[in-house]
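User: For this week's homework, look closely at the record that follows, marking any run of repeated tokens, and judge whether sequence predicts the tokens.
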Amino acid sequence: MNYLHFILCAFILCAQFTEAQKNTSKNKKDKTAVGEQQPNPKKGFVVIQTSLGNITIQLNDSAAPKHSANFRKLAKEGYYDSTTFHRVIPNFMIQGGDPNSKNSDRSTHGMGGPDYRIDAEIGLSHDRGVIAAARQGDQINPQRMSNGSQFYITVVPTTFLDGQYSVFGKVVEGMDVADKIVAVPRDPRDNPLEKVMILKMTVVE
């Protein structure tokens, strides 16, 4: 009887020790989880700070790696800072990214950019709120290569452009801002009468 009692006590002690070990291990894991720095789900997104509010862009690195990398690079360099949305067309899109738009001569707006073009990465559809690269027409650009900096954001689905231009991301926050921009008064060349500024672009780290 005493022998059985001894075995039972030993079993209870062993069970208690095992449970204590589990609790200690769980506490360690919980502490580690709390202490670990979680990855930022918006890392690599680009925030366009405009004079009418902010627009946040999620780039599509898998479908358009060259365009996405170029857009981030220029944003980090401050290339877009103090440029404007130089072309706005209601029920269509807003266009920006031209360094010429820093100048007062509006006749040059829409004609500038860096001294390189980007290989076409055509495939994504033109839904509402996508960002795509501007380019010269097929007559002088049959390979449909993109301008090195100019981009447009659609405010309605424009699927008639599918297969012609390189879409490289989408708006995840701030479509209300894009809607405000597209509705501003504009001149006969669709350039806003009062400048809509791209004050700064920031890449989320």
